[in-house]
Structures are given as structure tokens and as C-alpha cells.
Write a structure and sequence with these properties.
Layout (H helix, E strand, L loop, with lengths): L3 E8 L6 H15 L4 E8 H5 L5 H17 L8 E4 L4 H11 L4 H5 L2 H12 L11 H4 L1 H11 L4 E3 L5 H18 L7 E3 L29 H9 L18 H9 L2 H13 L3 H28 L1 H30 L6
Parallel strand pairs: 1-2, 2-3, 4-5
Helix pairs in contact: 3-13, 3-14, 4-8, 4-14, 8-9, 10-13, 11-13
This protein binds tryptophan.
Tryptophan binds next to strand 1 and helix 8.
Length: 336
């Protein structure tokens, strides 16, 4: 049997927070150590361009996200870890796919439709106001990411499932017309990974500005944890673990035994202040070794750059010959 090929893309906008860690980084790193799978992890910096026009933000975020994955122990010997923009074949393939993708398919993308809807709701005369071609064609670049490495499985959140299905549609259409070139990918949705709430109780997300950065230094980390929303129960009054953001975050980091102990403390009526202090101490301890390594990498970006250059070389060993096959299939050929 051929190995399953897993591919994970991370858009380089923002600083990694504990919600990203629990939902994507931790399971991704565990998967990178599984010898039964071939894994690709990449920084989707061209995708970031569709969301941010701030050059410093994009480059800072690329460094922070790469350093976070490395500091947390991504196995870059076994997995291929690279930056999308270092693989020119991906952008080349994007144009090839663009040439045979129905505009109607892109009209149906949820992300594009949501942007149009927002314009309509805010009373804009132009429903496409502020919508770039990069946002509109976002699923085509994503399809190129996926198809370039013959990915069979693409772990994504629910919001990205449709994009992976579109990549599959594009691959099918291409194969039907030009012959059997692409492997058909499948989305993988893990319903078991935790989705953490943020400081205000809504889903932790940079768009809500309610995140706890994964590698916040000790002082800001404590300050943020102290800000987590709780109810007004007094010390001594028994508290529910269900719906408690502090409890959910604790549980996402702790062992089942430690979690059971905290459940007991809730039932006994631990004061919120005391519980927050406990959560802070626990996360701080847990994260400290990786945080030290992260800070070392941020202070010396050349180490991160070298890792990405190595990853890009390995990725291009696949992409360059494959792109030559694709060019030949579509009739972009040498003339003699
Ligand atoms: N669009 C994805 C996101 O915003 C990131 C991404 C880019 C991606 N290319 C990909 C994910 C390819 C999986 C496969 O989360």
C-alpha cells in the first residue's frame, strides 16, 4: 500500500495563540513523528497576502509561526517543512488550474460569499467592494498547494473543508481532460480536537482580539489569564466546570488525573482568583522549555531561515519534475 500523504498549510497572519496550539500545532507535531505517514507542513505566506497588506506583519508572523512549530519539536527530518513562496512551481500550477476552473465554482466559495454578504448587509452599492482577486481565487492557490505534493489527506477546520473539495473537483476536471495527472485529495476533519474559548468567552480567535499568545512572557501571560471572564460566584460556593473557560484551558494542557483534581476543587468552591493563579502556574511550567527555545529562534532568525531553505529544497525535488510533467500534459513544451 502506498503511504498516505498529509499536507497542512498555516496562513502567516498573526502570532500563534494557545487555541492554535491545542487545535492544530500540537496534533500536527504529533503526526510529524508518525513513520506511517508522509507529512508536508508549510507556511502559506502568499495566502496571507490576500488578508494583509502589511509587509512587516507578514514577515514577523512568518518568523513567529515557523519558530513556534520548530520550538515545539516539529520533526523536520521526517516531515517536509517549507514556505509556500519558496516553491515557484506552486504559483505556476495556480495559473494552470486557474485556466480550467469554472468561474461559477469560485462564485460558490463560502469565504467569497460571506464577503459579498457583508457588503450587501452594510448597504454597499458594490457587492464586490474591497474584494480582491486573491480573495476570490484563494481556493485555486490552495488547490495548487494540495495537488503539487499529491496529497491524499488534508487536515483542516470546518471552514476550510469546502476548499479541499474544490481542489478535488479541479483535479478531477483536469484529469478528465488531460489524463491521469493529479491525485484526488480528501479533507480530514477531527471533531475531537479542542476548540478553546478566549478571554471573553467567545471562540479564541485573532479576529475577536481575545487570544492568549502561546509564548507570552511570564508577566503578560499571568495578566491575560487573570482577565479570563468568569461568573460572580464567591469563594466557597461550588462551581460548574462546564462552560468554564479556565477549566477548558486547564484540561487542554493537563493529564486526566490532574484534571480530575481540579474538578474536585471546583466542587469544593475554589476562588476564581486562586484557580486562575493555578492555571497560570500550570501553563507557564508546561510551556517554559519551548518558550526559551522560541525566544532563542526569534533572536536568531537565520536558524529558522536555514531550516526553511532546507525544506524548500526537499519540496522542490518533488515539485520541479512534477511541474515538468504537468507542462508537458497541457502542451507547454520545448519545440525541438
Ligand atoms: N487556507 C488555510 C487556512 O486559512 C491555509 C492553507 C493554505 C491550507 N493552503 C492550504 C490548508 C492547503 C490546507 C491545505 O487555514
Amino acid at each position: 500500500m502506498t503511504k498516505e500523504i498529509y499536507l497542512t498549510g498555516i496562513t502567516t497572519t498573526g502570532t500563534p495563540h494557545i487555541g492554535n496550539y491545542v487545535g492544530a500545532i500540537r496534533p500536527g507535531i504529533a503526526a510529524s513523528k508518525d513513520p506511517k505517514k508522509k507529512n508536508y507542513y508549510f507556511l502559506a505566506d502568499f495566502h496571507a497576502l490576500a488578508k494583509s497588506g502589511d509587509p512587516d506583519q507578514i514577515s514577523k508572523s512568518t518568523l513567529e509561526i515557523a519558530a513556534a512549530w520548530m520550538a515545539l519539536g516539529l520533526d523536520t527530518e521526517h516531515a517536509t517543512f517549507y514556505r509556500q513562496s519558496d516553491i515557484p512551481e506552486i504559483t505556476e500550477l495556480t495559473w494552470v488550474l486557474t485556466s480550467m476552473t469554472a468561474k461559477g465554482l469560485m462564485n460558490r466559495a463560502h469565504s467569497y460569499k460571506a464577503a459579498v454578504q457583508a457588503n450587501v448587509e452594510s448597504g454597499n452599492k458594490d457587492p464586490d467592494k474591497g474584494i480582491t482577486m486573491a480573495l476570490y481565487s484563494y481556493p485555486i492557490l490552495m488547490a495548487a498547494d494540495i495537488l503539487m505534493f499529491k496529497s491524499t489527506k488534508v487536515p483542516v477546520g470546518r471552514d476550510q473543508k469546502q476548499h479541499v473539495e474544490m481542489a478535488r473537483d479541479m483535479a478531477q476536471r483536469f484529469n478528465h481532460h488531460y489524463g491521469d495527472i493529479f491525485v484526488l485529495p480528501e479533507p480530514v476533519i477531527d471533531d475531537h480536537t479542542a476548540v478553546l474559548a478566549g478571554l471573553d468567552g467567545r471562540k479564541m480567535s485573532k479576529s475577536y482580539n481575545n487570544t492568549i499568545p502561546l509564548f507570552a512572557a511570564e508577566k503578560p501571560l499571568r495578566k491575560l489569564i487573570m482577565k479570563i471572564k468568569t461568573n460572580s460566584l464567591e469563594p466557597g460556593e461550588p462551581k460548574e466546570t462546564e462552560g468554564s473557560t479556565i477549566f477548558d484551558i486547564f484540561k487542554a494542557f493537563a493529564t486526566p488525573g490532574e484534571t480530575a483534581e481540579v474538578e474536585k476543587l471546583y466542587a469544593e468552591g475554589i476562588a476564581w482568583g486562586e484557580m486562575k493563579q493555578k492555571l497560570f502556574e500550570y501553563i507557564n511550567e508546561h510551556i517554559k522549555p519551548a518558550r526559551d527555545e522560541y525566544e532563542r529562534l526569534i533572536a536568531d532568525p537565520a536558524i529558522v531561515e536555514a531550516e526553511l531553505v532546507k525544506g524548500a529544497e526537499r519540496a522542490r525535488e518533488i515539485a520541479v519534475p512534477y511541474m515538468a510533467t504537468i507542462r508537458d500534459a497541457i502542451g507547454i513544451r520545448k519545440l525541438g
